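Subject: Sanity check before I submit

Could someone independently write out the structure tokens for this chain? I want to compare against mine line by line before I put it in a report. The sequence has 225 residues.
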Amino acid sequence: MLAAAKSGDQAKLRSMIHELEIPNSEVWYTKTFGPDKGESWAGPYQKELAANETRFEDLLMKLSSTDGDFAVQKIDTRKRYDTLTGPLDEYLASWKSATAADAKEPTNLANFFFIDGKFRWNSTDRYFPFEPELKRNVVMGKLVKNVAPVYPVEAQRKRIQGPVKLRVIIRKDGSVIVQTVVQGDPALSPAAIEAVKQWRFEPTLLDGKPIDFITTLEVNFALRP
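---
Independent answer below. Compare away.
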């Protein structure tokens, strides 16, 4: 794709980007992540696909005039997603600019699933690092139901404590879908997930309209002295 962008062949570039689409995405998301999470991702994926592909094309055109190299790393999907129905190969593609300092981290570009022998772009993870952030009026919904986690007996016995951070989707109706564990001891994470699934929020508003909202929630486990 970068070679097509460098040659100025945007028709070929667009064709290659189209080939990155997830086939039968609604069925695939539901089959791979279960009905709740699959539905929450499949809808936005289809709705925003055309716009995201245009932005991805612009990203590659910008990279074509930049000196640098791609870096690719495999993602541990078992840790990232809490409800996988089977094995899943996912990769993070990054860009290391030739002019950047050696200590500077590569710039994340995109995540790719490997499906049926081909790489497919996971456009639900948005990076687009060269775009200015749009100023939008986002009002985060307040937490209206907080269910405390049940402290795992084994974790208490081993004196395990600390925070568990979860990446979640707060849906328009205020319900919560847990996507992945960002940080936390594996002995505590299942209890945190089970508790957060029962939390409820007021709707998050974007320019006055309810939206699904991706954020990070934290659950703290502390032992009594």
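---
OP: Matches mine. For the report I'm noting this point. The CA atoms of residues 94 and 108 lie 4 Å apart.
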